């Protein structure tokens, strides 16, 4: 199991819009992305995180290069971001 964690710096006023992007693309992610096993939205005081589950690191990397991520998700989130997203990949042991 591999986790892809994307941390987004979003103003509190823009968080409902960011959550709407998450909801809009959750099912397409789970239904069409190879190796996708789950997706969760984590909201903290200082940021918003999206935690994606994958069967392998190769599946996670392929998603980061996919049109769903680069065009759709990033395209809709870009106006809401205060900084570049922090993207991390974690492998379970």
Show the helix and strand layout.
Blueprint: E1 2-8, H1 15-32, E2 36-43, E3 48-54, H2 57-65, H3 67-77, E4 86-91
Antiparallel strand pairs: 1-3, 1-4, 2-3
Helix pairs in contact: 1-3
Query: Major β-sheet, in short?
Result: 4 strands, antiparallel
What is the subunit organization of this protein?
A: single chain
- Helix/strand order, N-terminal first: EHEEHHE
Q: What Rg, in angstroms, do the CA atoms define?
A: 13 Å
Query: Could you name the CATH topology?
Result: Alpha-Beta Plaits
Number of domains: 1
Q: If classified by CATH, what would the architecture be?
A: 2-Layer Sandwich
How far apart are the first and last residues' alpha carbons, in Å? Answer: 8 Å
Strand order of the largest sheet: 2-3-1-4
Poorly predicted tracts of residues: none
Mean of all residue-level pLDDT scores: 96
Indicate the structural class: alpha+beta
- Percentage of residues in strands: 25-35%
CATH class: Alpha Beta
Number of strands: 4
Number of helical regions: 3
Helix content: 40-55%
